[in-house]
Amino acid sequence: HAGAVATVTLNRPAALNAVYGDVFRQLLSHLAAIDADTTVRVVVLAGAGRAFCAGGDKNVDIGASATWTAEQRRAEEELAQSAVRQLRALRVPVIARVHGVAVGAGCDLALACDLIIASDQAQFGQFWVRRGLVPDLGAVYMLPRLIGLHRAKELILTGRLIDANTAARMGLVNEVVPHAELDAAVARVCA
Question: Average pLDDT of 85-94?
Fold first, then answer.
């Protein structure tokens, strides 16, 4: 916490902040604590290192999921979806501070926030198709509402990576600032 601003940082920089079950469990725990803290009036979701979030951790997911039963797979999917729902349901606004890559689940986490402030070095993508998957963390719902149906289908079906300025032109990002000014821009919105 810094005053009334709570920052939640995805902190797996060596894995580009890729997410998996334990990360979602921790995120749920932190979000519940923030929601219960009446001194917090805004939340910033950030990533450590050079990425916001590179999506699901295929090094963890693929190995573990090979032995999952259908019930275990469903439980893991529900866990991730619960984290996104909790992020969207917080009683205070949430700002995604995106300074690097935000793809797959990482892009969906950013989409779950109320505002997205991006560095000019940020990149966004719906990489689910690259793993033979359908976006399951809210993109199918959020993207068409933000950027229109055809643009949403384009990103989801092609898995194309777009830069921050393209994302802003599409309506995916609220503001793009020079990389060195990202923290100041987020602080200004939080003030």
Answer: 96
Phi-psi region of 19 (alpha: psi -120 to 50; beta: other; left: phi over 0): beta
Helix (H) or strand (E) holding 98: strand 94-98
Considering the entire predicted model, what is its pTM?
Answer: 0.93
Return d(Cα 7, Cα 10) in angstroms, integer.
10
In this prediction, residue 34 has a pLDDT band, given cuts at 50, 70 and 90, of very high
User: Could you give phi then psi for residue 47, rounded to 5 degrees?
Assistant: -125, 145
Residue 117 and residue 95 in contact, taking contact as beta carbons nearer than 8 Å: yes
Secondary structure class of 109 (helix, strand, coil): helix
- Residues 115-137: b if buried by 16+ CB within 10 A, e if exposed: bbbbbbbbbbbbbbbeeeeebeb
Burial state string for 75-101 with b = 16 or more CB within 10 A and e = fewer than 16: ebeebbeebbebbeebebebbbbbbbb
